[in-house]
Structures are given as C-alpha cells and as structure tokens.
Amino acid sequence: MYFSKIGKLSYVALGVIGIILAVTSYIDNSYFLKYLALVLLGLSLMLNGYVTYLRWNGKEPFVYITIGIVVVIIALGELIRIA
C-alpha cells in the first residue's frame, strides 16, 4: 500500500516534469529537451503500468510498460544520435 502511493506520486511527478520539458523544448526548439522529455514520459508510463499491476494483478498494465519501453528506447537512441 505504501509503495503504491509512492509509485503514484513518482509517475505523476515524472509526467509533469516531462510535460514541462516538452513545452520548454517547443519554445526553445531544443531536440535534447524533446528527447529527454520523451524519456521521462516513457519512464512515467512504465512506472504507471507497474503500480497498476500491483493493484490489479492482471495482464492489461503490461501494455503501459511495453509502450513506455518502446518510447524510452527510441528517445535514448535519438539522444545518442544527436550527442
């Protein structure tokens, strides 16, 4: 129960920081901030799926985890490419 609350707070915080970075990258035209925001949003999706899995114990939350992994891999690849 305690981890569930910390998990919820964590994925909401990662999501909010990711959205702020995405808006900042749009204003600043920075590819680095754009892909960093994508990494944070992907991690938020993965954490959301894991916390949902702890509550429901079903297979549906693995969709969130899979989408998060794909987003993080693509964003990290782009970060390595531009660095």
Task: Explain what this protein looks like in three dimensions.
This protein has 83 residues and is mainly α. 90% of the residues lie in helices and 0% in strands. Helix 1 packs antiparallel against helix 2 and helix 2 (31-56) runs antiparallel to helix 3. The longest helix has 27 residues, at 2-28. The N and C termini lie far apart (41 Å). 29% of the residues are buried. The model has no long low-confidence stretch (mean pLDDT 88).
Descriptors for this entry?
single chain; mainly alpha
Annotation field: number of helices: 3
> What average pLDDT do the residues reach?
88
Could you state the order of secondary-structure elements as H and E? Answer: HHH
User: Mind describing the biggest β-sheet?
Assistant: none
- Give the overall form: elongated
Number of distinct beta strands: 0
What is the element layout, followed by pairings?
Layout: H1 2-28, H2 31-56, H3 61-82
Briefly characterize the structure.
The chain is an all-alpha fold. The chain is about 90% helix and about 0% strand.
